[in-house]
Amino acid sequence: MRKLQKQKLALALVLVMMFIGASPAFALSDGDIHMKVLENAKTERDRVELTGNYSGEHLNQSIIDITYLNQNTVTSYTYTGDNQNLVINTHNINSQTISSVRNKLTRFVFQIRNMYYPHNAVSISGIEQDINTVRTWTYGPDKDKTMFAIVNGLRECLNNEPIMSNYSDGFSDNDIWIEKYLPENIDALMQNDQNKNKTISSSDKKVSKNITTQGYYLDDEEKNKLFWIFKIHTPEWLINFLILKFIT
Fold first, then answer.
1. Domain total in the chain
2. 190 belongs to a structural domain
3. Residues with Cβ < 8 Å from 106, sequence gap 6 or more?
4. Coil, helix or strand for 116?
5. Domain assignment present for 90
6. Is the peptide bond before 118 cis (omega within 30 degrees of 0)?
7. Cα separation of 119 and 37, whole Å?
8. Could you tell me if residue 11 is inside a domain?
9. pTM of the full predicted structure?
10. Each residue of 119-168: pLDDT tens digit?
11. Containing domain of residue 75, as a range?
C-alpha cells in the first residue's frame, strides 16, 4: 500500500513538473494578444457602424474636423459609450498646412498606441483622403484613457514639432510633453482635468451629426484602407514610409 502511494505521489509530481515546464509554450506573446484585440476592435467597429452609431460600449470615436484650418482652429467631436455621449472641443493651433496636421496626428496616435500596447487598440483614418475630417478610434480596457490622451493632447500635438522619437527608446526633449499621457501618469491628469468641454444635449446631437458627417462615411473599399496600429515598437522608417505614402 505504501509503495503504491509513493508511486502515485511520484506520478503526481511528474505531472506537475510537466505542466510547469510546458506552460510557457502555451503563453500568448504580446503580439498574439494584440492581434486578437485588433480582431475584436474591427468587429466592434463594424457592428457600431452598421447601427449608424459613432461609439459603443467598447468603442470610442473622435472626429477631428480640419475645415477651418485657415482660421487656425480644429474641432474634435468625441463620442463615447452606448449613449454616444458627445463632447465638442475647439482647439486653437498655430498656422500650418493640412499635410503638416496629418503628419503630426499620425505620429501622435502611433505613440499613444505604443504606450498602451498590447491590450488596447488605437486607430486613425482619413489621413490619406482628400476630406476635411480625420477619425480616431480607441478600443480596450483603457479606451477612455487613450481617447482622453488623443483629444486633450491635440493642441500640444499640433502646436509642437512632429514627434520624432519613439516610446520604446525614450522621448527626446522636444517630445517629452507626451509623457504626461503615459499609463502611470494619466489617472492623475484626468483627475485634475477641469472638464471645460462643451457637452451637447441629445436634442442638439442629431444636428451636429448631420453637419460633421458630410463626406464622412467610407465605402467598403475605402474601409479596407483603414489601418489599426499594431506594431509593438513602430520603427521610425515605417512611420516615415506611411506618412510619405498616405499624406504627401
1. 1
2. yes
3. 124, 127, 239, 242, 243, 246, 247
4. coil
5. yes
6. yes
7. 6
8. no
9. 0.73
10. 999 999 986 666 799 999 999 999 999 999 999 999 999 999 999 999 98
11. 29-246
